[in-house]
## 1
Amino acid sequence: MQPDTDPPIAEFRATTKMFGEVGAARDLNLSIRKGEFLSFLGPSGCGKTTALRMLAGFEAPTSGDVLIDGERVNDLPAHRRPVNMVFQHYALFPHLDVTDNISYGLRQRRPRPAAAEVAQAVEQALETVRLPGYGRRRIWEMSGGQQQRVALARAIINQPKILLLDEPMAALDRKLRRDMQIELQSLQRSLGITFILVTHDQEEALSMSDRICIMRAGRIVQIGSPRELYDRPNSRYVADFVGKSNFFAGTVSRVEATGTALAVAGGLRIIGTAAPGLAPGQTASASLRPEQISLAHGTTTADGTTCVPVRVVNRIFLGEHTEYLVQHDDLGAFLVLVPRQAEASEGSFEPGEPAFAIWRDGTALILPEDA
Ligand SMILES: Nc1ncnc2c1ncn2[C@@H]1O[C@H](COP(=O)(O)OP(=O)(O)OP(=O)(O)O)[C@@H](O)[C@H]1O
Ligand SMILES: [Mg+2]
């Protein structure tokens, strides 16, 4: 990926798209780096496809600008942009075979490239997506995963500067999806093309992206690397969307350099790191990841920890970890992730048993409801 200081390959500048009264995309501001793998992540209807379509040239912004390679492209038609899109349902031509599907874009070019040149480009694209020798197959003779590769081959044959992928793996089963994710990633690294992926699958976004753009109701609410978003979400919405978290609602009672205290149910106080701008008296939520909490059979009074009595409700074996659902009289139900090693030393916990949930003060994030 290029350094931050280089000019971006694409940009949204205060870009808004209205469909009548609906603000499908609102005031988007984003610089996309050359060679980056960027994902748009958010729930259905939050504007991910709209953002992608404005880059592709299938929608024009209502206000603001879209730039590609430093050029304002608001009015540049799709076929003149150095961009290609893979659609959710591939949009392959069923009456054409694999070769003709892949070469379709090249054959539309004027002047038309020589047949030998097209054939060679198709061969190479098929190699890249690991389908050599499949050129004369019919589309309906291909599996879902193979069709997905044909759609990819069709999109990369023009050597676009940016490849736009709108939920390209939605139709695949879990195992195939995982394989394709790994392949897409290595394809991106080897081609050096900028990939922009739309997904509502957080695992997919976390595992593949250099940066993720979290969207909500047409707006970008946070942009960051997977780790930044996981460790430093700027709102409860983001913390909830990226990874699993427990939330305890309360009122900020103290804000100091050493920690922010949130007064929660039952007279309890959760000490954590506050998002900037939180002030005493404000309502907020403490976010504690399940892996930040441990379980013990006995209570502890160790300095700098909070220990609360709970009852084990449920246990799910996850291999290296066991996930416990526990219930506290005031805090309600929450999740605790216990590593196999810890369970080996502390012993396991049976549903129905009393136990103690323990966390280090300061590890919680105190987050506003909205960014
Ligand atoms: N052509 C259109 N005409 C009217 N409204 C539209 C149009 N396209 C999208 N919208 C609306 O804009 C909003 C954003 O739609 P968009 O397709 O960008 O969402 P999305 O994040 O891609 O959702 P999904 O995950 O369901 O694909 C939605 O409220 C949608 O109904
Ligand atoms: Mg969509």
## 2
Amino acid sequence: MGGQHPESYISGLQVRQRISRKQPKGLPVINMGFNEMPYPPPQSVVEALSGRASLAHRYGSAACNDLRQALGVLHELPADQLICGNGSEELIDVIGRCFVRPGDGIVISQYGYIQFSMIAHRLGAKLTKAPETQFTAQADSILAAVDETTKLIYLANPNNPTGTLMPPEEVARLADALPASVVLVLDLAYGEFVGEDYCQRTHALVDAHENVVVTRTFSKVYGLAGVRIGWCHAPLWMMGGLSAARGMGSVNGFAEAAALAALAEHDTMRDRLRELLSERDRMFDALSATALDVVQSQTNFIMCGVPGEDPALVDRLVGYLFDEAGIVVGPVREEGLGGFVRFSLSLPEHNALAVETVQDFLEQRP
Ligand SMILES: Cc1ncc(COP(=O)(O)O)c(C=O)c1O
């Protein structure tokens, strides 16, 4: 493993440090930095978690049979092609460990999710970044980056930090054009924000190809970021290897109980999703009316460029948001995105406060 952490990892640490720093005016801290949902879990999820407490002396189900069955029914997928993990982060990592050896190639898009670069770094892989157009991953560019060393492609669609989406027809074209020896990981952490139809089309690629894996999470739309639970849908032949590479007890009993209860909260989740999407439209319009350069998002966050794309201005804006309004946001540090900041959507009043504070900052800027 090399010594240097990618810069945006450092930026993640800075966000955490800001949260632990005292808000100078004593205001409540509003976290708009981690792409979490702003709503607390529904009562039934809280009860499922506390109900599991009296069984804490028992192991959870290593194979997560109940949860895989429930996911299979909900998404019309075969439960024996699903694996649950300690957040989708674990599964994304497990897939890398299964298919990549030191010196092998991993391809991601230019502004692809930072975790992919970290995994390549940990595995000692050769990382190639395929150029994007208008902050959006391109199928042809990814295909051009594939060479004889490439073992894996990670594509978060929609992507974090950009929030953009490669259209599903393009993803299908990418999957069709790849050699069977290259595994294509489609990370749908934010898939629900695009729509169920889109998610189904992506899962259909697993049926049509022996080298496509889809990862999903309960951390975003289901609002369970803190309990750590995700899942993946993979071709049958990969099940043995992926299951063996995953930690046996990586999904604890609390996480499975919470996920099962959350799946039963259909109406609440749908309403929350609807509210968040309308907030996204409102926030997009409001931010676009400022001097920020706003990137259209398909997720629960919005990335914006500051005037002149000046990283020093980003740092000042991030500091101002915290000091004046208690708002924590993450500067985006991916190569080429130093002049950008990312706002995770929050409750309407928090979003409005963020826009107001941005406006104040930009007006006072020398
Ligand atoms: C694109 C993307 N994939 C995966 C994850 C990991 O999610 P989790 O491990 O919480 O399931 C995140 C988290 O922010 C993400 O942005």
